[in-house]
Design a protein that fits this description.
Strand order of the largest sheet: 1-14-13-12-11-10-8-2
Largest sheet: 8 strands, parallel
Number of domains: 3
CATH class of the largest domain: Alpha Beta
Radius of gyration: 26 Å
CATH architecture of the largest domain: Alpha-Beta Barrel
Shape: globular
Structural class: alpha/beta
Number of strands: 25
């Protein structure tokens, strides 16, 4: 069996690429220095994979900003507004055009907006959305892929496996920039350019295998989209007969696209058996004689060790049906979504650390699975000891938390009185105008605030000095809101480092890594909390600062909390129990904080859920179940208070007005990485009890759609 890696993280274990790109944008390093950092990172990652014994090592998975943007530049899909930039950089560098498309261009009197960015399926990564016109032309523009293949072959001493986004998924990830056509109709103009690229890779670099990522095969498809797959891959087969094509799918099961996927005239098909292990039996029944199967058994999106026994069962089923030579072992998807190296995490509790695996360790898991299949049983025994330790550990399992979740009943997700009753009561109590004004919550974390927090962590100032400075910033924010006449105030959240991390640091069942960075987009990296055990709230989390702020004004002061679904979505989550159970544990903890705020005199409490749409399953048929438990979790967190208390929510980036014919169906057009322009908006409550999320809202005008931060 061959071990097959789909892609590797690129920003570096110490975020070297992030730092180099930001220095280049600021003019502090040269292009040559930037490229040297990239060269060193690529070689480090190739070496790690070679040392781990990976048979099919990817190249062209490295990107300075985003792999979809790389594809747009390779195919010459450059929006017309960048024509002046193309002219400006023609004698300069392709990389400057590339960054202009990603970040915008302001130079020599030009002010050109960046391309749109949105979520990559249901991950926390963002990609740059291709823009298409009805007369769109395609041509080979960038040389990056050819340079990468040449460099990888020279470094590894063998031919690498180039990775490209497949033609159908590339079109479907984009957006029509004018009405009257469907971007999938461009497939016949696009495929000849793919063929040109593939033939050049074969003829000039003697490529054996090439990976074409087609994640849309795991989504709902129209008949035109299905036809595009058939046309594209038959044309590639006809014009590139000697190239071994592997089509990679991930993030969900093939489902009703199984027969389409296995019938494509390619040499291998990759499937995600972490998200959808149940699909293997159906695929094995349908697979033709000459098609090999890459089994995605190692989780590319989470940080827990692989259960070798479970993976080996899937591998053995495939080997019995296909024979050893037609089975590859792989991660479920690119390791882009995993942190780099667990070996750097020396501060983690050793017991918990033994249950974890980052990207480097996942390569070793592939090697171990191959070795165990060949007879190295001791590796299986060591792994099962760690798996059993996690199942029974007192660090994870808290009987009181489990009992409380099991005791949840329907009344826990309902306010005491219906909306009209609460509305009339609150109108009489608070005497707010017809359209009260407020802001979303957080104010900008200035350089001074960040430096203050850093100094406190280093011990350069005392906790008392830090608190005094945060109090001053809070009072200043309150006075500004009073001066401009807002009706319901916020305290600005200057004491908070992040809307999820702040709560994770105070909840039991969470831990934080030192170097567990993953790329969110471009140079932005995030370090998600790790939910390792049953979640509970040992003490008040926000009451102190909300109470302080309330005492500084005669106006209503909002308490500000992050909702349970957002905390779940923006963390590395347990894989040993359903996500709904973990969410309910968080919901109960937030519920306790809501009640504590009410007892402290806070009469308006906002529970933010910007990530509630991110959790939507990719398949429409699976969404009602998710929405049922996600909405219920929000209601559990919000329903412990008296009728007099107003509960607000904010769902920036969660409500989409786009149609599935123009944009990817799982995400809105804006993203938290680039907040949209400020707008006046009113989220008016509905008295209809059948719309549970809206029935919790108060009618308020919020200044921006996103946080002012």
């Amino acid at each position: 069996m061959l071990t097959n890696n789909l892609g590797y993280p690129r920003v570096g274990a110490h975020r070297e690429l992030k730092k180099a790109c930001e220095q280049y944008w600021a003019g502090r390093i040269t292009r040559k220095q930037l490229f040297l950092v990239a060269k060193n990172l690529r070689e480090q990652h190739w070496r790690l994979q070679q040392e781990a014994g990976i048979d099919l090592i990817p190249c062209n998975d490295f990107s300075f900003y985003d792999q979809v943007l790389d594809m747009s530049l390779l195919l010459g899909v450059i929006p017309a507004r960048y024509t002046p930039v193309v002219t400006d950089v023609r004698d300069n560098a392709e990389i400057d055009l590339y960054f202009a498309m990603a970040r915008g261009y302001q130079k020599d009197g030009l002010d050109i907006t960046a391309m749109e960015m949105t979520k990559w399926f249901d991950t926390n990564y963002h990609y740059i959305v291709p823009e298409f016109t009805s007369n769109q032309e395609f041509k080979v523009f960038s040389t990056k892929i050819f340079n990468d293949v040449s460099a990888a072959a020279g470094f590894l001493g063998k031919v690498p496996k180039p990775v490209l986004l497949g033609p159908v998924s590339y079109l479907l990830l984009g957006k029509e920039k004018e009405p009257g056509f469907d971007r999938i109709s461009l497939i016949k103009k696009l495929v000849p350019v793919y063929i040109e690229i593939l033939n050049k890779l074969k003829d000039d670099y003697n490529i054996d295998w090439i990976q074409l990522d087609e994640p849309f095969l795991a989504l709902d498809l129209t008949q035109d989209q299905r036809n595009a797959f058939v046309y594209a891959y038959q044309a590639i087969k006809d014009r590139c007969p000697h190239l071994k094509i592997m089509v990679a799918t991930y993030f969900d099961a093939l489902g009703d696209n199984t027969s389409l996927a296995v019938s494509l005239p390619v040499c291998a098909l990759h499937i995600d058996l972490v998200r959808a292990p149940q699909q293997l039996d159906e695929i094995l029944k349908a697979i033709p004689d000459k098609l090999s199967l890459s089994l995605g058994v190692v989780d590319g999106r989470n940080i827990w060790i692989n259960n070798y026994q479970r993976s080996l069962s899937l591998i053995q089923n495939a080997r019995e049906m296909l024979g050893e030579g037609r089975v590859f072992i792989a991660p479920s998807c690119s390791l882009l979504h995993s942190p780099f190296d667990l070996d750097m995490e020396t501060a983690l509790p050793e017991e918990i650390r033994s249950w974890m695996a980052f990207a480097k360790q996942k390569l070793h898991e592939l090697r171990d699975l191959k070795a165990i299949a060949a007879g190295a049983i001791h590796l299986l025994e060591d792994n099962q000891q760690a798996i059993q330790s996690r199942k029974t550990s007192g660090l994870i399992h808290k009987s009181s938390v489990k009992a409380r979740v099991q005791a949840i009943h329907q009344g826990d997700a309902q306010r005491k009185s219906p909306f009209p009753v609460r509305q009339e009561l609150q109108l009489g109590l608070y005497k707010l105008p017809l359209f009260p004004t407020t802001t979303i919550g957080s104010f900008p974390q200035t350089d001074e605030i960040r430096q203050l927090r850093a100094r406190q962590k280093k011990g350069e100032i005392t906790q008392e000095q830090y608190d005094a400075a945060i109090q001053d910033a809070t009072v200043e924010a309150i006075r500004w809101q009073e001066e401009i006449g807002l009706d319901v105030l916020v305290h600005g959240e200057f004491e908070r480092n992040d809307m999820v991390e702040y709560f994770g640091e105070q909840l039991e069942g969470f831990l934080f890594t030192q170097y567990g960075w993953v790329q969110s987009y471009g140079s932005r990296c995030v370090k998600p909390p790790v939910i390792y055990g049953d979640v509970s709230r040992p003490r008040d989390m926000t009451v102190q600062w909300s109470s302080f702020a309330r005492k500084q004004t005669k106006k209503l002061m909002k308490g500000m909390l992050t909702g349970p679904v957002t905390i779940l979505q923006w963390s590395f989550v347990r894989d040993d129990q359903p996500r709904s159970v973990t969410t309910n544990q968080i919901a109960l903890a937030i519920r306790d904080e809501v009640v504590a705020l009410e007892k402290a005199g806070i009469r308006v409490i906002q529970i933010d859920e910007p990530a509630i749409r991110e959790g939507l399953p990719l398949r429409k048929k699976d969404r009602p179940v998710y929405l049922d438990w996600a909405v219920k979790a929000f209601r559990i967190s919000a329903s412990g208070v008296k009728d007099e208390t107003q509960i607000h929510t904010h769902m920036c980036y969660s409500v989409s007005t786009m149609s599935s014919s123009t944009s990817p169906p799982w995400m809105p057009t804006s993203s938290p990485s680039r907040p949209p322009a400020r707008k006046w908006s009113c989220s008016k409550p509905s008295p209809d009890s059948n719309t549970p999320m809206r029935s919790a809202l108060a009618c308020m005008i919020s200044i921006p759609r996103a946080s002012l931060r």
